[in-house]
Fold this protein.
Amino acid sequence: MTSEVHYLSSTTCPAGKIATRSILPEGQVNAVVLLLHGATLPSIIFDLPGSQNQPTMMSYLAANRYAVYSLDFRGNGLSSKPDAMDDPTMAGLPLITHQDAANDVYDVLQFIAQRHPHMPILLVGFSWGSSISGYIATHSNWVSKLILLGPVYSYKNPQWKELADPNNSTKLNPGIKSYRVASRERWCGLWDRELKVNNAIGWRDPKTLETLVDHIENTDITWANTPNNRGCVRIPTGVLRDALQTYNQTPLYDASKITCPTLVLRGEHDTASLSADADGLMNALTCQKQRVDIPNATHYGILERGATRFFKEVADFVGA
């Protein structure tokens, strides 16, 4: 199955465009699934095989008769970049927080509702996207079921200490500007670290990482081809402000206010979505809830050789 990319206008930023992928099943559509990406990897993660001849998350769900959509939040992936990201000084406040991302999701939900009137819509939020999906579930009536994939909620994860001002842990590190520049080494490093800690480089097909970083670099190719920018892309830093809030144990949404059935799904060896954080999230949820930890998988398990284990859990929960 091949995905199609649509470019939707942003209602909150008239010049902005939201890149939205879709794969529709042949025949009857039983439900609609919208996938939300995280802080650094755009929506290609849902449309990229984790190993040779392995389905993508989108194609797997479409094969189960679900209409599947994903989007790149503005400033990420194939979506338009805010004008402020052309400022080489990176001046101004961090760009694209969870509220901005939620506005992009609302635009996509309107598009989906026009294409699939009266169909139930399920949100799958990965990493930072889990916070956005939780925020939408507690601030609207769009969501029929919720899947929090590799979620972050409210825990002092030591990995996030560098986000804080050394003199005041509640304020953002002054070195963080409106956007950041990430290199190929940055993409590889986060994933490699989790694999090496678990002596599990074999969990990932080398071609998957190469294809992933090639795609990411190509989403910002004009900027990346200018002097001193080769092999890098720009990423908004609003997510870092959100992460600091989470690190200070102030969730971006109140899980107790979620009313729809919710699945908490993570890899056993995920060091971004810690087990203790998932414990707190499960304790806060008062709705019908379920938790699954996939063994021998990292934060990026949906791109690893065992990715279909995640896909099956999602499909089973959607169809339950």
